Batch of 4 targets.
Target 1
Amino acid sequence: MKTQQLVEKKNFVTVKDLDAQNAMKLINRAEYFKAGGAVEKLTQPVYVANLFFENSTRTHNSFGMAERKLGLTELPVDTAHSSMSKGETLYDTLLMLNALGVDLAVMRHSQNGFYEPLIHPQPYQHLDMGIVNAGDGNGQHPSQCMLDMMTIHEHFGHFAGLKVAIVGDIHYSRVARSNMEMLNKLGAKVYFSGPSYWYDHQFDAYGTFLPIDELVGQVDVLNLLRVQHERHAGDPNEKSFDTEQYFAKYGINQQRYDAMKENAIIMHPGPINHGVELAGNLVESPKSAYVTQVQNGVFMRMAMLESVMRGRNLGGLK
Ligand code: CP
């Protein structure tokens, strides 16, 4: 039997430092777990805290499931009732959890790059725990990105030459930033579409912006993005936002769905705004990978957590 090549990381906060080779190792490991491959038995307990300062259904519970499957022990932390309400810093909060014996923290926070001070402690600072980014502002969403890559790989078997369109509220999206980066590294051709006011020309370096009706018939993957109203405070386009207009101009309706290639898929990180990015009756349609993405997320998060445990020799993993 071929020995699996495994990834070792001290922290997992971005896909910027993940090359194509290591991305493929993680995808292979996640596919191994999905196929029923055994997890390595831990020889010492590993304690993990899941700290979500923004709401989540998929990511929070997916990490929770992945942790249980790997044999980790979760220390439940109620972020709404922590001493951060008294002004304690994020760093001090993590330092205290670390002192209590927590080895790993999975964290979501609205502040871009919240993890920087946690992974680069200053002189006299002693925080020493693995940090896994479950989404920072509109910065990065590495676990969503890697489960999306797994879903594409599972369906097509390769990335080279695939055409992937990232569609929608790109400016505010951490999923878009992570996915465009990794799709480029893996050899897929990236396109963008949606409202031009939510597109930044800095993304031109990763792909080509085109109207949705020029793209639906030629791409292999439509990677739809949620319209993230909670991030639109101060955005001049929020006030005039109209659901029906958005759906008509940029959403995937039956006509656009029918124009897609036979083997093409629709991905959406969720939660979906039914009838905005995608028609409600198409959410579970044959070309929709929405549920598969969530299923794959558990196995990819197992692979990602394992890579950090291995990088830190936690639980006896080397
Ligand atoms: N895709 C995603 O991050 O979903 P949640 O906000 O439900 O975790």
Target 2
Amino acid sequence: MKTYLVTGGAGFIGSNYIHYMFNKYDNDIKIINVDLLTYAGNLENLKDVENRDNYTFVKADICDKDAISKIFAENDIDRVVHFAAESHVDRSIKNPEVFVQTNVLGTLVMLNCAKAAWDNGDGTFKDGKRFLHVSTDEVYGSLPDGNDYFYETTPYDPHSPYSASKASSDFLVKSYVDTYHFPAVITNCSNNYGPYQFPEKLIPLIINNILSGKKLPVYGDGKNVRDWLYVMDHAKAIDMACEKGRLGEKYNVGGHNEKQNIEIVKIIIDTIAEMLPDTDERKAHINYDLITYVEDRKGHDRRYAIAPDKIKSEIGWEPETMFAEGIKLTIKWYFENTEWMNNVTSGDYQKYYQEMYK
Ligand code: NAD
Ligand code: DAU
């Protein structure tokens, strides 16, 4: 039985990944989830797995070397799947320090603890160990409008403090591969959407605003392009890259689903209007007049688009969920989880929203 140390498993992608893994492997794996439970971490995301005998939650900071070493000392960890990070670009523009702390120094702590635990003492590592570093396409910078793509060979050119911190963490992982032959694989994924995403990100923010009758803030001209991937497809890619990826390699993961932000907002408006019953009084007010163009994000990357050819040809992964289907599944999840949304949007979120969109 393999033991997984998952970092950031109480966040959006981490919690979906844990659901994916238990769904796939059931009792054949053990998962230890280490998460600091920042504003983005939420144990409600994991309610249906919390009583499993093969699941453990540890509240700890990945920057805390003693806490992380203790987990390695007490468990024979086979896989590290490293999600924990500060993940929101707008917050990184306002407060970059915590991004360097968690994303760079936290990754260094994870690498050092895994390296120490897996070291045979003769410059080699124990057989079969793997460290999967979850990264982003934002490290590649911005593409002009057109049909160029990000490849694994595209030079890094990050623009925001968030993407610069993720690029630094990728380089640290690469340096451990190159220097120590450390058994790591990196995945660089495009924008995810799906259940449990915190409503600071475009798709859940728009869904929540529509359902609560608020304006829909679109940055700049609304024509920035993102390549959207359903989160469960990402979870599958991570599992496959972890098991079948060549050590020391990086793999781009993307949905082949480029859309302008304004298209996304209009699709969500149309889909919610279609899905709400006629008896719902909110329906009459759901239309494009809710869209409000607001000041652009500083340093806003124009376009992201992933070429996922390498992961397809080497590992056999492909995106499976069409956007039309994924967005309905997502909206349905938010319809059915109003209590989750109410809980995460009370308190600090209100302060964040006022400050961000004033
Ligand atoms: P998220 O913000 O929803 O979750 C991050 C999780 O990390 C939270 O549970 C939080 O509590 C935890 N965390 C933060 N700081 C920590 C610390 N110091 N110690 C321990 N835990 C800590 O993020 P997400 O959207 O799920 O992203 C997960 C990973 O995937 C990140 O590394 C991100 O860069 C990467 N990624 C995200 C996307 C996307 O579209 N969301 C796309 C590609 C890659
Ligand atoms: O590409 C992968 C990245 O995708 C991940 O590495 C990040 O962790 C994740 O947050 C996401 O980054 P983005 O900045 O692309 O996602 P966000 O949802 O914040 O914004 C998507 C686009 O929508 C972006 O062009 C900015 C725009 N936007 C966003 C918000 C929150 C708006 O127009 N209005 C908004 O209110």
Target 3
Amino acid sequence: MSAPAAQPQSTCLAESVRADFPALAQRINGHPLVYFDNAATTQKPRAVIEAISHHYEHNNANVHRGVHTLGNRATTAYEGARDRVATFLNARSREEIIFTRGTTESLNLVAATWGAAHLRAGDVIVLTQMEHHSNLVPWQMLARRTGAALRFLPVHGDEGLLDLSGLDAALRGARLLAFTHISNALGTINPVAELCAHARAAGVVSVVDAAQSAGHMPLDVRALDCDFLAFSGHKTCGPTGIGALYARRELLEAMPPYQGGGEMISRVTFEGAEYNEPPHKFEAGTPNIAGAVGLHAALDYLDGLGRARIHTQVQDVTTYACERLREFPGVRLFGPQGERGGLVSFVLPDVHALDLATMADQQGVAIRVGHHCTQPLHDKLGVPATARASFYFYNTRAEVDRFVTVLRRVIQMIKGTP
Ligand code: C6P
């Protein structure tokens, strides 16, 4: 008897973790759920759900205020989560980690504080053409307020790679370079360390949007040598409403506060206030304590699996999905041919992306359609909307096969062919 074909190692990882995610076991519209909307948000493992319940059942109190036992427990848990984020990113110190609501708020914080303190009329902010609105609109608002100008690094065709030939020229005289690590629309993985090195050589501050990479691959802010880095907990198996901003300590110390309120001050009189030290200076009001606890559990969970292993698994499923999608005549796939983040956006001839996603959902398959908050990029590509399937380490090749079968059925229904 011949030996059974070896399963790809990655499939073993997916199969071994699926039971950790209660949401994945559901049937949707009578069909087993295929959840391919992970770039929007990931599902949550039981360890995260239980950590949040445990916090509310046993340790719920406000932080940094009480002398009572629950207050001390909540403070220890919240500050323990900050330590965890610092090690997750390999920050030099815990003071370089500010809790926010997520990537969007982290980027807005940089624009509102560092930006307001340092940018003047005529200064230049460099972005790329593939930025999510969260890494575009805050800079547009800042530019409008200060009189600064925006400059864009171009993206090449449907393959979606950054054209870096004009990088040094674009950085000349600029103050800030903000760019995404992994594009949520194209899947492009940008060369973060190289971009940050060019920025540093030009005296330009670098801001990395790690929304799509933090939960997918090892991230080391010291090795990348970035000045700021933003990510969201909910895209890393954690809860919604919590995320973090990494910021180099010297920059934080020179930055004005973000919002005014409790916790961000050291002394207040009727006339004025002295501000607390970073990171508290940037965390006014009662923070998302349970969110931080859930994020801590999520980062433990991810590192328990290994982020390099997660990346390999996601690569495997994504490459397979691209191969299968190429079977459709006339399909237009966006993003790099080689290594890419865990997603693929596409359009099919004569099939409206919204119809596709709605009918796929009727058969249990969750994908996203639209411009994915990258409308200028979609304008450049000449498409109002794309369909996007996005993967995580719990997705399997078998799910991709089901997705492809469902797509065929949907296309037949839309086109009225048997
Ligand atoms: N992209 C997507 O479906 P928030 O919403 O703050 O957690 O993350 C914003 C954000 C910033 N940058 C990138 C590259 C992103 O992908 C996102 C979120 C989701 O693609 C929701 S639009």
Target 4
Amino acid sequence: MPVTPHTLLSWKRQRRPLTALTAWDCLWAKVLDQAGVDILLVGDSLAMTALGHETTLPLTLEAMIHHGAAVTRGAERALVVCDLPFLSYQLSAEQALESAGRLLKEAGVQAVKLEGGYPRLVGTVERLVETGIPVMGHVGLTPQSVHQLGYRQQGQTAAGAEGIYQQALALAEAGVFALVLEHIPPELAQKITQALSVPTIGIGAGPHCDGQVLVTADLLGFSPKPPPFAPVYADVPALITQAAQKFCQEVRGGTFPAPS
Ligand code: KIV
């Protein structure tokens, strides 16, 4: 059965942990979908992991439509959520509606994610949700604000933690179906998770969230400097190197293709 925002809500009630990984094309989407990952996030981290940019900021809406469509073609069961890239939603609720609408119509993704929880953005979330577009929120460390926040853990002071807590409550009230909590203290993530009826999905936010998300390039050993909270589950570059070297050796040595 395909995963929907409604499924995620029921899993929160049942305390069934949610899993999410990022995907950027059809090939990876198929493998991750068949592995049973619940949510495929077309995260704008693909700007760095797949496209070689320094930050997520250069990514365009056109590029996200291209990647979102490829991921959608590879996913059968997982819910596909696509990031709204930097400056495709911050100007106005109308701009956000137009951008999110294009992701749903042209890429076929089922939901969008946006970063932040300041009051004007909460109004934008309300507008998207009342239009029928499922929205995932994202608070704590928000990489589109890297030039303001860096990549440091957020919510370390009492005031900072309270600010993130209030943003989480406001986003839930505005109708997000799930909320990513990135790089915040575990106690704060626990407090937010207990306060919300919608699921929280942590990344570097400790064990008390309703689910966990990781960037697939980090998980598979592709990131030269993965964040401290991102374990490497497999050294995939080593496997690829081995296979590619074997191919080169066999072609150069005349053993592939086999002589007929
Ligand atoms: O872009 C991304 O990969 C993300 C995750 C870090 C949640 O937003």
